[in-house]
Design a protein that fits this description.
The protein has 105 residues and is an all-alpha fold. It has 5 helices and no strands. It has one domain: Cytochrome c-like domain (Cytochrome Bc1 Complex, Chain D, domain 2), CATH 1.10.760.10. The chain is globular. The relative contact order is 0.17.
């Protein structure tokens, strides 16, 4: 009986963690869709363009605090709102989603 619990318990725990992990696409649709698209330019640059120019740390910084990062990223002005209300897992999920559009070399 103990062997069954040793096998089943980790599976249940991993499944529960995955269920609570936010989807990058869901975060995108909730917060980003109005200004960004995956592969086409809209009001803001496409995710493909962003992924090919920036690393994960730069993307996360721009999402969380654009007012203090836009100049260092080469922008003349900031038109992106701050999404400081995103929690760490949502921020990582959207960053990973953006990076998924990076060209394969």
């Amino acid at each position: 009986m103990k062997k069954i619990y040793c096998v089943i318990l980790p599976i249940v725990a991993i499944t529960a963690l995955q269920a609570n992990k936010p989807s990058g696409e869901k975060v995108f649709k909730e917060y980003c869709w109005g200004c960004h698209h995956q592969s086409a330019e809209a009001f803001g640059p496409s995710f493909k363009s962003i992924a090919n120019k920036r690393n994960k740390a730069q993307i996360m910084a721009q999402i969380a605090d654009p007012e203090h990062t836009y100049k260092s990223l080469g922008y003349k002005r900031n038109s992106m709102p701050s999404f400081s209300d995103l929690n760490e897992s949502e921020l990582r999920a959207i960053t990973d989603y953006i990076m998924s559009f990076k060209d394969k070399k």
